[in-house]
Amino acid sequence: MLKRGFIAGIAMALGCTLVKAELVGEVDTAFRWLGKDDRVVIEAYDDPKVQGVTCYVSRARTGGIKGTVGLAEDRAEASIACRQVAESLHFLEKLPRQEDVFTERMSILFKRLHVVRVVDSKRNSLIYLTYSDKLIEGSPQNSISAVPVPHKKSIPVK
């Protein structure tokens, strides 16, 4: 526990964000004779700069032998729902107006899933957008979710 906190502290001091998805659940969508089945996974991401906000992302994961060893390319579609999961929100630092909060590899090379946080100061809300990109051709498939910030609290923006 102490070691994990030390590593996280160093990463934050260096300006890095160590965010790891937590698998919440999964459902099989297609049977594969060899390797894992194709499935839809639900992962939770806690916002590293806003304590009390968790984003739930569902997306397809390719199975088979390639998927089992990490060589398959997952589909570009994803869905997101972000919620306030604590009694109150706590901002660890000032937030940029737009920031790539989480990224995760979707293929061995060049394809990534992104979750971007956008601050809507006028409406006192945090908007989260998920999309995927590829080195040559990204995907217009996207999904958004918004978390309202209580009126008594304002969002600290850089």
From TrEMBL:
The protein's name: CreA protein
GO CC annotation: cytosol
Coiled coil region boundaries: none
Pfam families associated with the record: CreA (PF05981)
